[in-house]
């Protein structure tokens, strides 16, 4: 291991510590941007003159672009060098953040969010790769622990920071604040990490596979995003997008399974443990992220909460996770990871059932309690699932499996966002129609009229009450469906065989 010793000797302990802090900060910024816009969607929608449904494209466009770019990370690192790719990605992320903040139309904002996602995709795995490269084995766990804490802190800080900025400044600043951090990380990376740059080589890229990947994912996501506004399969455009996404996916799978150097190595799915763990991860992460999307919108549009307080309610889950993350890591060495995962996912499902009984009269503490208690279980499914999935593949396949895992997790958040908002909107319409049928407006109108309200005021008041109750019934339905999905996921994980021996999770991101 003389080569490794030579790399470690190139950096002094002080330089290594500073570099570790810069890499953790860069990871925090990218993870933060995944959730910081969630609570700001109503503000952005109002300012740009679009519906909140259209505003969610800001979330999904970033997630999809990031997911598409993740499989390219390994090729980019081999072709241009880890430090160079990290630096350019940070610079691009900062540039597109400024352009997002300057956007005046939805089209411009979505395009710039796609640019953000493309540049942000390599930052997370590259920061982890560089940490593994600059820290010797005896201090690596501590460095990776610091990095993992930023991954958990991002979802916690995102809604609070986004809410505070939207309420007190302007939504534009949720993007502008990335610029000084990006500039700091670019200059620090050049000053501190240049001695540990990796060697480069001209490596062939699977251009056909990449093109097919972009094609079918784009068709699928556009279909999911605009389907709500086009009455789904009643519109020929949606049918065409669905056919193109399905055909593109089939051709992509066939090509990747026969390609010698695929952009996404689908062969790892032959391992039952990996497949079941990844399926469980996508269901759990999708259900968890769905609540991060719908809760702040419901609180702001229907319950009268400011973006700041909506962010606090949303962030309580991730805050609680910070307390149990070290315990989950220690228990991994002594406990069957399938048991930890199954119990944790079932716990989150029970919390989702609890939230399925929320009413329009619920107070802050009534919402905060299940949100906070749910957070204790997060590390017990997230950390063991990573180990279980990577422990089910061959050591030579670990990097490919880790990249595929991150790709599926990111896609799950984008697809879940579209699906849950569709279900929420449909449930609202059904509940509103059912309540309208059983209302007895004559009695209500005579009662309100005796209080001195005009006919217009009475009609508006009844309409507001019906809308508020229909919205809360719809969100309860979303939570109930999420609970069922989580209970199914808790059972599926047992299809995976128990991992044996130590698992190298250094390639996970």
UniProtKB/TrEMBL annotation:
Keywords from the UniProt entry: Cell membrane, Membrane, Transmembrane, Transmembrane helix, Transport
Organism listed in the record: Sphingobium lactosutens DS20
Taxonomic path: Bacteria, Pseudomonadati, Pseudomonadota, Alphaproteobacteria, Sphingomonadales
Transmembrane segments: 18-37, 57-76, 88-108, 114-135, 147-165, 171-193, 205-224, 236-255, 276-299, 305-327, 339-356, 376-394, 478-496
Bilayer disposition of the protein: Multi-pass membrane protein
UniProt family annotation: Belongs to the major facilitator superfamily. EmrB family.
GO molecular function: transmembrane transporter activity
Annotated compartments: Cell membrane
SUPFAM superfamilies: MFS general substrate transporter
Cellular compartments per GO CC: plasma membrane
Major facilitator superfamily (MFS) profile domain residues: 19-501
Major localisation: membrane
Protein name: DSBA oxidoreductase
Pfam families xrefs: MFS_1 (PF07690)
């Amino acid at each position: 291991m003389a080569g490794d010793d030579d790399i470690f000797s190139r950096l002094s302990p002080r330089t290594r510590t500073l570099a570790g802090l810069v890499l953790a900060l860069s990871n925090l910024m990218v993870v933060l941007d995944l959730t910081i816009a969630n609570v700001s969607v109503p503000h952005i929608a109002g300012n740009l003159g679009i519906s909140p449904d259209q505003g969610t494209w800001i979330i999904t466009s970033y997630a999809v672009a990031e997911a598409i770019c993740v499989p390219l990370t390994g090729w980019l690192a081999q072709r241009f060098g880890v430090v160079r790719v990290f630096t350019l990605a940070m610079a691009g992320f900062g540039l597109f953040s400024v352009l997002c903040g300057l956007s005046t139309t939805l089209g411009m904002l979505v395009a710039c969010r796609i640019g953000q996602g493309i540049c942000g995709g390599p930052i997370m795995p590259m920061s982890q790769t560089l940490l593994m490269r600059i820290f010797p084995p005896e201090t690596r766990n501590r460095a990776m622990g610091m990095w993992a804490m930023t991954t958990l802190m991002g979802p916690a800080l995102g809604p609070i920071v986004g809410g505070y900025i939207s309420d007190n400044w302007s939504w534009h600043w949720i993007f502008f604040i990335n610029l000084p951090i990006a500039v700091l990380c670019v200059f620090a990376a050049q000053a501190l990490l240049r001695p540990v740059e990796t060697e480069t080589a001209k490596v062939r890229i699977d251009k056909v596979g990449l093109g097919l990947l972009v094609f079918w994912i784009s068709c699928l996501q556009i279909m999911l995003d605009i389907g709500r506004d086009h009455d789904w399969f009643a519109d020929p455009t949606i049918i065409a997008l669905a056919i193109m996404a399905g055909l593109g996916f089939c051709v992509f799978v066939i090509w990747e399974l026969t390609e010698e150097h695929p952009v996404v190595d689908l062969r790892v799915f032959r391992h039952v443990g990996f497949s079941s763990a990844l399926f469980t991860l996508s269901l759990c992460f999708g259900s968890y992220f769905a609540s991060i999307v719908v809760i702040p919108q419901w609180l702001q549009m229907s319950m009268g909460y400011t973006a700041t307080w909506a962010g606090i309610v949303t962030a309580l889950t991730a805050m609680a996770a910070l307390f149990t993350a070290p315990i989950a890591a220690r228990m991994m060495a002594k406990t069957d990871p399938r048991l930890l995962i199954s119990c944790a996912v079932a716990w989150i499902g029970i919390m989702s059932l609890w939230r399925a009984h929320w009413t329009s009269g619920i107070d802050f503490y009534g919402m905060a309690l299940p949100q906070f208690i749910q957070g204790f279980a997060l590390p017990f499914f997230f950390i063991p699932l990573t180990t279980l999935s990577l422990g089910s593949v061959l050591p030579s396949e670990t990097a490919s499996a880790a990249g595929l895992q991150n790709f599926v997790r990111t896609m799950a958040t984008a697809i879940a966002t579209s699906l849950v908002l569709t279900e929420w909107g449909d449930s609202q319409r059904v509940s509103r129609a059912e309540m309208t049928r059983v209302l007895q407006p004559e009695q209500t109108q005579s009662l309100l009229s005796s209080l001195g309200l005009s006919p217009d005021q009475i009609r508006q008041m009844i309409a507001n009450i019906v809308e508020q109750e229909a919205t809360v019934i719809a969100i309860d339905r979303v939570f109930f469906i999420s609970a069922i999905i989580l209970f199914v996921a808790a059972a599926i994980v047992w299809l995976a065989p128990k991992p044996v021996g130590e698992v190298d999770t250094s390639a996970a991101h």
